[in-house]
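call fold(seq) -> tokens
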Amino acid sequence: MQIAALENASGLSRETIRYYEKQGLISAPRRNASGYREYDQHTLFELYFVRKAKWFGFSLDEIKVAIPKLRNPPEQCQALHAALMEKRAEIQAALIEQEKKLASIEAMMSKLGALPALQKTSE
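ret:
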């Protein structure tokens, strides 16, 4: 598929696709007889992986290290699985911290909400 089709299928702009290609985040495409880039389904999968990994909070440098593992045998996927498990643990820890903050905010709001009632009774 040419870049217009890849753009439509991936939901990414042509500039983003070319940037990812230049950065080595996706496989270099073949060139047809006219010199146009020809992308395959694996490139679409790589773009999907990059988008998801970015959404998960991985940096482009971290993603760049992972991409070659998608091209290799299944045992390489264990390294990706480990990285995903680590990111999952980071997100869970951040969620716990955010829940603590939320509970603290709610407690403070409750106390502040009670202040006007206390002031009226003391007057």
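The mean pLDDT is 87.
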